[in-house]
Amino acid sequence: MSSGDGVFGYRHSIATAQLVLFFIALCLGIYFKLSHRNGWFCIGMFSIFRVVGAGCMLGTITNDASSVWAGVFVCESFGMALIVFLLLEFMSRANNAVPTVHPRWFWYPQVITWADIGLAIGGFASASKTDSLSPTKYTQASFGLFTGLYLIVVFTFWQFWRVRPTFPRDEKLVLRCVGVSLPLLAIRTAYSLIYQITGDQTWNAVKGNPTPYLVMTFLPELAIIFLCIGEILLVRPPPREEKDKRNMRERLRGYAMIGSDQASRENQADQTRLQASV
Question: Membrane spanning segments where (predicted)?
Answer without folding.
Answer: 12-32, 39-62, 68-90, 111-128, 140-161, 173-194, 214-235
